[in-house]
Design goal:
470 residues; APC family permease; mainly alpha; globular; APC_superfamily; 69% helix; 18 helices; Amino acid/polyamine transporter I
């Protein structure tokens, strides 16, 4: 099903139309509806992942986790607005890489994609590590590698069958997570009402006289990972039935639902335990709180629900990483014969799915702290350049520049750039160092591949739907 408008509505040349058609011809199958996109995004974000970082961020922000979530939610909304703009111009797989490549520069687009690829490739590995940690706590006699291998095998199998089945599975998995989370919130509220731990409802998690702006920024920078699901949805533009309409809608629905969920859950947790140093294990604060509010039985249910999050998250993380590699391979940024192919029957980039699975197996040799420290670096680079891409579209492609266009294509994404750069500089030194090394490796690879930038970069394509903004 073609996404191209009629020739009369497009303000680009014949060569660009032909290039756009080449992108759209019978490669990935368009099977995803709005509900599939929303559940894929929510599963990618893993609703129960809100519990992973509560203790760490509560200590970092001195008891202001909900405020840190509000800060990062504002940042994400500005970036989401830019994603929704760009997906209308480029309803093709690739996300931030595609947008920077097409709107700014092909070489720069490659580096943005390289930075974003680090996030996408490592998230399945982190997911497998979490699986081993949580299941190991319940079944200590089972070796760690068994849970890692089993998690990766299930996620890989579902992705090889096809994207629609994986999306349908996520409806069930996200629903289970939400039920567990609702019970968690209800039990926490009951404990607060009963005065457990001396708790009472207060606005302190959002505001107090001892708020440290730098600490809130640092906490928000960590929590940005919680919202990466909307970015993953944009990589599925070629598999959505109506990408120009449904992906922007899915993006804002995902952020709205997830943001409300994150703030609500962390608020009641923070009210019950304003000082997380009371807990025995700050990193494992959430399972300890689950036992406190509901006993050992609820703690077991909580851990079971978390494993549903691990499975749902692993499916969508692997799906998105494979499709990002596909987009880069199709355009020649990576070897096309290896990365730019899809199976004719399933419409799945099989080789890429298997490559991501192999990388995830490094979970057997890397600890959680080492893996997690590398994620945010690329995420903020990608978010920054998506916002910048909107600004470049305005100056390069739009012919009519009304006051509304200046606001929507320059002012709003400009604020998004500023916020993301601010959060990027709030990252810890280890993240900056490891991310910087990864980026340098990408630059060296690009330099060698293009023989010092003398070789032609992949052709730039003008926005194929630009007519509707003129």
């Amino acid at each position: 099903m073609s996404t191209l408008p009629s020739r009369s509505s497009v303000a680009v040349g014949d060569d660009q139309i032909a290039h756009a058609v080449a992108h759209d011809e019978g490669r990935l199958k368009r099977t995803l509806k709005l509900r599939h996109l929303v559940f894929i995004g929510l599963a990618y974000m893993a609703p129960l992942a809100v519990f992973d970082m509560f203790g760490i961020v509560a200590a970092e922000t001195d008891g202001h986790v909900p405020l840190a979530y509000l800060v990062v939610m504002v940042a994400v909304l500005f970036t989401a607005f830019s994603y929704s703009r760009m997906v209308r111009f480029f309803p093709i797989a690739g996300s931030a890489y595609t947008y920077a490549k097409e709107a700014i520069n092909a070489h720069l687009g490659f580096l943005v994609g390289w930075a974003a690829t680090l996030d996408y490739l490592l998230l399945p590995m982190i997911n497998a590590i979490l699986s081993g940690i949580y299941m190991g706590a319940v079944f200590p006699d089972v070796p760690f590698w068994v849970w890692v291998a089993l998690t990766i095998a299930i996620c890989t199998g579902l992705n090889l069958v096809g994207v629609k089945l994986a999306a349908s599975m996520n409806v069930l998995l996200v629903s289970i997570q939400l039920v567990v989370a609702v019970v968690f919130v209800v039990l926490t509220v009951v404990n607060i009402v009963n005065g457990a731990n001396g708790a009472e409802f207060t606005i302190r998690p959002f505001f107090s006289n001892d708020i440290q702006v730098t600490a809130i920024a640092a906490g928000a920078a960590i929590l940005a990972l919680s919202f990466l699901g909307f970015d993953a949805v944009s990589t599925l533009a070629e598999e959505a039935e109506k990408p120009e309409r449904d992906i922007p809608r899915a993006i804002f629905i995902i952020i709205g639902v997830a943001g409300l969920f994150f703030v609500t859950v962390t608020y009641v947790m923070q009210v019950l335990f304003p000082d997380v140093t009371q807990l025995e294990d700050i990193v494992g604060a959430s399972p300890e709180i689950a036992k406190y509010i509901g006993g050992a039985a609820f703690q077991a249910i909580f851990v079971g629900g978390y494993m549903m999050a691990v499975l749902g998250c692993g499916i969508t993380q692997q799906m998105s990483a494979a499709r990002l590699l596909y987009a880069m391979g199709r355009d020649g940024a990576l070897p096309r014969r290896l990365f730019g192919r899809v199976d004719s029957r399933s419409g799945v980039p099989v080789v890429n799915v298997l490559i991501v699975a192999a990388i995830a197996l490094t979970a057997l040799f890397v600890d959680l702290d080492q893996a997690a420290s590398m994620i945010n670096f690329g995420a903020f680079i990608a978010f920054t350049f998506v916002n910048l891409s909107v600004i470049f579209v305005f100056f390069r492609f739009l012919r009519r520049r009304s006051a509304g266009a200046w606001i929507g294509f320059v002012l709003v994404p400009g604020v998004g750039v500023a916020i993301n750069v601010w959060l990027w500089f709030s990252l810890d030194g280890v993240s900056m160092l490891i991310g910087g090394i990864w980026l340098v490796l990408g630059f060296v690879y690009l330099l060698a591949k293009t023989r010092g930038f003398r070789s032609a970069a992949p052709d730039l394509t003008g926005p194929i739907n630009i007519g509707m903004y003129e």
